[in-house]
Amino acid sequence: MEYVQNAAAGTAPLTPLRPCATHTLHYRCKLLVVGGGSGGCTIAAKFARRLQKDAVIVLEPSDVHYYQPLWTLVAAGVTSVASTRRSARSVLPSQARWLRDSASSVDPARQAVVTTNGTSSTMNTS
Question: Beta strands 85-87 and 64-66: pairing type?
Fold first, then answer.
């Protein structure tokens, strides 16, 4: 099941979306970031500051974010794995829309991404 949540929603519960067979969800955005890791969060935050609310979509299925650059200190015994863990909501930019799903196909020619749950997102370049 797909869940959509705005990163600024705070502690509001996730809203399940149940598209019927004849209707698939479609989102338009200026920038779609596939992956909410450190790189995805950085790019999303940079562009979300300059664009309108929800013009940036982050496609990330996990509700947990691990700050992997800190893992070198975990390996050295300086810190714990738990210290690298944050909720995805806390690290994603509040101006971005968070789609809790993963990409199943990318069509660069159409500037479109389809998720594993059938949701499509296209980039609006105008």
Answer: antiparallel
Write down the pLDDT at residue 78: 96
- Tell me whether residue 100 is in a domain: yes
Mean pLDDT calculated for residue range 4-12:
47
Q: What CATH code is carried by the domain that includes residue 86?
A: 3.50.50.60
Per the rule left: phi > 0, alpha: psi between -120 and 50, beta: everything else, 111 is left
Domain count, the chain: 1
Q: What is the pLDDT of residues 101-123, one digit of tens each?
A: 999 998 888 888 888 888 787 87
Give DSSP secondary structure letters for 95-116: TSEEEES-EEEEETTTTEEEET
Mean per-residue pLDDT for 61-83? 94
Q: Residue 17 falls within a domain, yes or no?
A: no
Sequence-ordered list of residues with C-beta below 8 angstroms from that of 62, at least 6 positions apart, any chain: 36, 88
Specify the pairing of strand 2-6 against strand 97-100. Answer: antiparallel
